[in-house]
């Protein structure tokens, strides 16, 4: 009796699997009539052809929004600007072998020169000069940073002194091994 119940379940599962492969529909007749009632909306959705059998458009696969618009070149000016900027950065750092610290220094000098010239030109064109805020570093914060830095430096000197006295062989070997590792780079 148990065998009799398992056969229809197995047959129905096989029917569903074969219908999936062959594209047939094994649903009941009531769902067929529901599909007909939906009208052309389901028919139009089924007619959309997407490359490689995707279910979602590429814009949705890329996450939608501005990053997807950038990658898909929907706004050509922004995408072109990003490409030009990335190319300029690549040319600076790879082709011309420019360094980041040098670039930051030159940008700071250029901004200072621009600000100086703008302040002097404002006198001739009767405009008010730019308002540059005054920056002050608090003394207590500076003292705390200096004290903590002094403590760390003294601790490092103490470790070097103890290692140099030969009291800790393990630390000596670790220092030698680290110096060999970083010395080869």
UniProtKB/TrEMBL annotation:
Basic and acidic residues compositional bias, start-end: 1-23
Region (Disordered): 1-39
Keyword Membrane: yes
Residues annotated as domain Reticulon: 67-173
Superkingdom, taxonomy of origin: Eukaryota
Cell location: Endoplasmic reticulum membrane
Keyword set, alphabetical order: Endoplasmic reticulum, Membrane, Transmembrane, Transmembrane helix
Signal peptide region: none
Primary location: endoplasmic reticulum
Record Pfam families: Reticulon
Name the UniProt record assigns to this protein: Reticulon-like protein
Species in which this protein is naturally found: Triticum urartu (Red wild einkorn)
Lineage of the species this protein comes from: Eukaryota, Viridiplantae, Streptophyta, Embryophyta, Tracheophyta
Gene: LOC125544669
